[in-house]
Amino acid sequence: MRLIVQQDGWEVTMEQEQRPDDRREQVETTNLAGRVYEIRALQPIADRLPTEHVPVSQLQEAVGKGNTYWFDRNGRDLGPYQLLVDWETAIKNPASADHIATINRADLTRPIWIYQDGTVFDGIHRLTRAVRDDVKQIPIKRFAKSDLPKTS
After folding, report:
1. Is the pTM of this model over 0.85?
2. For the chain, which has fewer Cβ within 10 Å, the N-terminal or C-terminal residue?
3. In angstroms, rounded to a whole number, what is the distance separating the alpha carbons of residues 77 and 149?
């Protein structure tokens, strides 16, 4: 199954691959600088980049109204703002349960990944938790186009 979300010219794709033991593994991809990359393939690059700490307020627009990155259990578009605007109602909604659980267990010590233009491309659940919990600073890894691997 392949799910594609587009927002402001950016595309995030979630695919499920069949595993030999019949469990499904999600493969998260992102479109940066006109190319598609698997998030896990970018991890070695992120490991080499310096970690910065920035005010959460600098990234807050990414979890603002109109930004949807996910699908709920009913297949409807879902974004952080929809959850944050009324958290108490959101946590009671079974359709949002998967994302609520991911937000609740989000590791705020793990850096959020940002492209050179300021676009958050990995870590929206972590950023949502940081906003929800009124965290002031958050670690980030800032990717430049020159950091990205060349693909064919």
Report:
1. no
2. C
3. 30
